[in-house]
Amino acid sequence: MTVATYSRAQIALHWTVAILVVATWLLHDRMEEAFDARMDGDGVGALPLHAWLGLTVLALTLIRLALRLTRGVPPPPADDPPAMQAAANWTHRLIYLLLIAIPAGGAVAWFGQVEDAGDVHGTIANILMIIALGHALVALWHQYVKKDGLLRRMMRAG
């Protein structure tokens, strides 16, 4: 389903998730220390902030996905070549997949005490950051080089 603009909720969720993902990624080292302490049998009294933020990212991503599926999203710029439109579509799908898989893997690592899940969690989190950087750079290219107003769609609702 396509619509002319993103809703206020979609925009707010996009930027909230983006900020939370960066914050969670920056807290990785502290979480790794807590995980290692837990695996060594040392008690960790409370669930670390990294984990709370990750679970919040998961919940907000599921809401974003539900909104995307029920409300729809604006179409890609009409003058983008089909290959670019397909790349954008698959990039968005991959981002959503990673935004679900990373917190799920982190939960398996933490609650199940599965060290390998923690390693995979960290690796795919780094992959998400690279993809998100590419996503942001392409949005800036659209806005400032191509000048098609693409970024504006995610800045204010119509």
Can you give a write-up of this model?
The protein has helices at 8-26, 28-39, 49-71, 82-112, 115-146. By secondary structure, it is mostly helical. It has one domain. The longest helix has 32 residues, at 115-146. It starts with 7 loop residues before the first helix and ends in a 12-residue tail after the last helix. 18% of the residues are buried. The mean pLDDT is 91.
Q: What is shown here, in short?
A:
This protein is mostly helical and 158 residues long. Helix content is 74%, strand content 0%. The chain has one domain.
Properties at a glance:
5 helices, mainly alpha, about 160 residues
Secondary structure layout:
Blueprint: H1 8-26, H2 28-39, H3 49-71, H4 82-112, H5 115-146
| Rg value | 18 Å
Structural class: mainly alpha
- Report the count of strand segments: 0
Q: How many individual domains?
A: 1
What's the rounded overall pLDDT mean? 91
Give the proportion of residues in helices: over 70%
Task: Give the ordered list of helices and strands.
Answer: HHHHH
Task: Specify the overall morphology.
Answer: elongated
Number of helices: 5
- What ranges have pLDDT less than 50 throughout 5 or more consecutive residues? none
